[in-house]
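Structure first, sequence second, as always.
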């Protein structure tokens, strides 16, 4: 059983930045999702196991970056120019499917999930 541990959430003003971290041992491609109150969980970004390919939701493009340091078993989500609509619980997820092209935005593609970390952006 893989345990994913997120950290780095918090309260930030609009226009500010936060960096989320997720640790997970083993060979997995990783994704970040978020869920706002009353809304479905939605895809934010993903990164292949090798770090060679990254994918973003339209809402994240140009503002968020995703990276990983496999030697530290850690994936990062750097979030810049944050907006109040980015407020949500952010979850990291791991998939054992290491193909270069998979349906990154599908929740069902991921085998393991973290407990989530709250991100609140004030206006």
């Amino acid at each position: 059983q893989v345990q994913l541990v997120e950290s780095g959430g918090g309260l930030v003003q609009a226009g500010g930045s936060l960096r989320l971290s997720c640790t997970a041992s083993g060979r997995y491609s990783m994704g970040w999702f978020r869920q706002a109150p009353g809304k479905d969980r939605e895809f934010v970004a993903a990164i292949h196991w090798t770090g060679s390919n990254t994918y973003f939701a339209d809402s994240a493009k140009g503002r968020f970056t995703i990276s990983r340091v496999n030697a530290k078993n850690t994936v990062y989500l750097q979030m810049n120019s944050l907006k109040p609509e980015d407020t949500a619980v952010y979850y990291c997820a791991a998939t054992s499917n290491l193909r270069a092209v998979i349906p990154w935005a599908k929740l069902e593609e991921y085998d393991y999930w973290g407990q989530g970390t709250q991100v609140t952006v004030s206006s």
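Margin note: The CA atoms of residues 38 and 92 lie 19 Å apart.
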